[in-house]
């Protein structure tokens, strides 16, 4: 399957803006949880396109949905609606707390819409002084200027000039800090129900409950950024369903389209009413192709057997990582939920997450990091058991080259 006249990796350095540093190999074909590069080398995929390819590569249902819709109609704009968008929105409202849906193209756009809606709702309902947004240290919400500022990692937002104001960051899982900062001027609290880019950090049940109660007390909206945690990733269709609390606005993207770009926010009729005609919009949001593929993905993800399978695979991953840890004494803990897992490196391996990532690639394993000290695993939700075993064996091999 070696590709003739292929574009080489060096072309990236010639023509691409240097905000990425991609691996040396170029994948050209994927099937299930396996990928092949230009030289026909095979890789196990534990990355899933950063928690995107939730049904693996080239799933028949995804290919069928894209092909069928591609032969019907691709784009209409929101001057009119389309059947796939209506079907998908209806299904999302049936599966969640939401009554209304707005479609965008990405998680960043979905979060931008969520933040704008929260501000608009608060100003319309309570007046112009209610504008503060509380978010959390090490949070991540996207790369637009608004969302990257709300995200709690300053190295992503510094250096672009004056930032959007009225944004306060507090430590995650710190109830006292939240109590000290939230007030009647707070319009919204934005949080990930499991921090992803910040190191795979779960909220305590007490913290999640406190956030909901304090938002209610101060008439602030609770925004759940479920871009990475949503669509089956934690073993619930959305992570809020496993926490026992309900947000006011929920953003979703990544695995919503199982690899096709699409994002959305979901909310109640009352809150949605503040996005009147002309207040917000998107040229490509809700396009027929994206919605058709996402509908096919949601139909599979939302099945009880799919969600139960995520929890079964989590057990396999944890057992395999523990076996590696017994051999190399490399992890301080394995945290996360479902198939959003992080193996935190201990002091002896501090700062070496990327070294392991590169070694894994050489051993035939695609994986991720979440900062310099955490290995991140976000594979397909339906990855076969034998691929989990083989991938962990390749991780073992990679680590052995670094000892």
From TrEMBL:
Q: In which pathway does it act?
A: Amino-acid biosynthesis; L-arginine biosynthesis; N(2)-acetyl-L-ornithine from L-glutamate: step 4/4
Please give the residue positions where the record annotates the modification N6-(pyridoxal phosphate)lysine: 254
Catalytic activity line of the entry: N(2)-acetyl-L-ornithine + 2-oxoglutarate = N-acetyl-L-glutamate 5-semialdehyde + L-glutamate
Question: GO biological process: what's one of them?
Answer: L-arginine biosynthetic process
Subcellular compartments:
Cytoplasm
Q: Where does N(2)-acetyl-L-ornithine bind?
A: 143, 282
Q: Where does pyridoxal 5'-phosphate bind?
A: 107-108, 140, 225-228, 283
Annotated keywords: Amino-acid biosynthesis, Aminotransferase, Arginine biosynthesis, Cytoplasm, Pyridoxal phosphate, Transferase
Looking at the UniProt entry, the stretches that span the membrane are: none
Listed GO CC annotations? cytoplasm
PANTHER family cross-referenced by the UniProt entry? AMINOTRANSFERASE CLASS III, SUCCINYLORNITHINE TRANSAMINASE
Assembly state and interactors? Homodimer.
The protein's name in its UniProt record: Acetylornithine aminotransferase
């Amino acid at each position: 399957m070696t590709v003739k006249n292929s574009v080489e990796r060096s072309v990236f350095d010639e023509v691409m803006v240097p905000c990425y540093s991609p691996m040396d190999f170029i994948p050209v074909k994927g099937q299930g949880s396996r990928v092949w590069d230009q030289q026909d080398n095979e890789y196990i995929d534990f990355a899933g396109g950063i928690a995107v390819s939730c049904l693996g590569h080239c799933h028949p249902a995804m290919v069928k949905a894209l092909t069928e819709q591609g032969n019907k109609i691709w784009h209409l704009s929101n001057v009119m609606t389309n059947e796939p968008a209506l079907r998908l929105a209806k299904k999302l409202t049936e599966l969640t707390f939401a009554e209304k849906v707005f479609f965008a193209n990405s998680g960043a756009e979905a979060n931008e819409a969520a933040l704008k809606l929260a501000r608009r709702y608060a100003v319309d309902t309570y007046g112009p002084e209610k504008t503060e947004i509380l978010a959390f240290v090490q949070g991540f919400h996207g790369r637009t200027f608004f969302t990257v500022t709300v995200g709690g990692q300053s190295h992503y937002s510094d250096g672009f000039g004056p930032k959007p104001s009225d944004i306060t960051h507090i430590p995650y899982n710190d109830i006292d800090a939240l109590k000290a900062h939230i007030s009647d001027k707070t319009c919204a609290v934005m949080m990930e129900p499991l921090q992803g880019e910040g190191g795979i950090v779960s909220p305590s049940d007490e913290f999640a409950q406190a956030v909901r109660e304090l938002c209610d007390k101060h008439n602030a909206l609770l925004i759940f950024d479920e871009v990475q945690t949503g669509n089956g990733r934690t073993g619930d269709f959305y992570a809020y369903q496993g926490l026992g609390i309900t947000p006011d606005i929920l953003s979703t993207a990544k695995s919503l389209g199982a690899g096709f770009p699409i994002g959305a926010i979901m909310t109640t009729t009352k809150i949605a009413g503040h996005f009147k005609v002309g207040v917000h919009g998107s040229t490509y949001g809700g396009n027929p192709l994206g919605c058709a593929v996402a509908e096919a993905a949601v139909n599979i993800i939302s099945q009880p057997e799919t969600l139960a399978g995520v929890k079964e695979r989590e057990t396999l991953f944890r057992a395999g990582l523990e076996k590696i840890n017994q051999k190399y004494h490399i992890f301080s803990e394995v945290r996360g939920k479902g198939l959003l897992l992080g193996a935190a490196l201990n002091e002896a391996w501090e700062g070496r997450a990327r070294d392991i990532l590169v070694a894994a690639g050489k051993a035939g394993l695609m994986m991720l990091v979440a900062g310099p000290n955490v290995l991140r695993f976000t594979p397909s939700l339906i990855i076969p058991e034998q691929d989990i075993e083989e991938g962990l064996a390749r991780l073992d091999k990679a680590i052995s080259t670094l000892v």
